[in-house]
Amino acid sequence: MSNNELDNKHDENSHRVSSGHAGWIAVLGAGLVVALAGDGYLLVQSNQLRESVAQSQETSQTQMSKLSDATKSLLEQRLESVNDQVKDVKDAQGAASTAVKQARSEARRQGTELAPSGRPTAAGVFGTHRSEERDRRHCQ
Question: Which pairs from 125-131 meet CB under 8 Å and 24+ separation?
Answer without folding.
Answer: none
